[in-house]
Amino acid sequence: MNNEKYLKYISIFVGVALVISLIMNVTLISKVDELQFRMDQLSTTQHDIMNNVHTQTGQIESALAEFKEEQSWISPIQFNFNKENEEDGTTEAKFEWQIKELEEDSEVVFHYAFGDEEEFTDIPVEAIEQGLYQVTVPLKLDVEPQWDIFIRNETNHSEMMKPDIDEKEREKSKLRYYVTVSSDDMVKSNDIRWEYMDYFGASKYGIIQTDVDLMDDIYHVNVTYHGVDQSSIVVDEVYLLKYQGNNLIGEEEITIENGNHSIENEIRFFHLYEQEMYEDMRLVIKTVYSNGDSFEKEVYSE
Asked: Which pTM was predicted?
């Protein structure tokens, strides 16, 4: 009898303990959820504050830039290429700007240095109208299309973009320039600015995107020509030159995908499938344009 009472008390105690434990767990979970909710709120608030700070910083920087421009004695210098006047690889870059306050008999000079040149060249400017000036700079450029090269290896599931040009080579197309205004004993100049001229080739010959897909024993080559708006010069033919080391061992025409390019010739697709891999493989793409110009670019080498 006593044992039954003892077991009954034990059962009641265990039941009460379980209920208390359950209540404590529910309360703890509720507090944890509340704490997590507050932390999420805090994180959201912090994110909103950072966004507001960045937005306000951008607005302040923009306002300061506008104020600086308004207070400047010279307007921003506008720049473009004269595509109609090219001869023997020489291209004309045209610059135009306005001087807001100009004293009588002031002399305006444009100074520039191209590529590796350390000394600036001074050239006279042309006055278009009162306070508005322009100058044309002849530049010797290696003009060619922009090459975007992608290598995909299906075996190890890797992908690589091959750089079109390294930074040292790109520096050779850098044009630095500034303007001076002199009158009596006073000379003032704006800050030295710079532009990379290498993108002129893309503005004339477009972009050649090459995708090389490597399998176990074969590879595919896809070439996409991204043309220039309203340009009469387009890619008509594309070839794959196969080299083994430095020896040319074959040439394949990459066929155009009929009926799948825009009427304006802005985009054209070329495909070459199931080519056999070989040792010491080196692949070169050759593009032939409608005006007879042609360019070659190595797109893969082991």
From this structure: 0.65
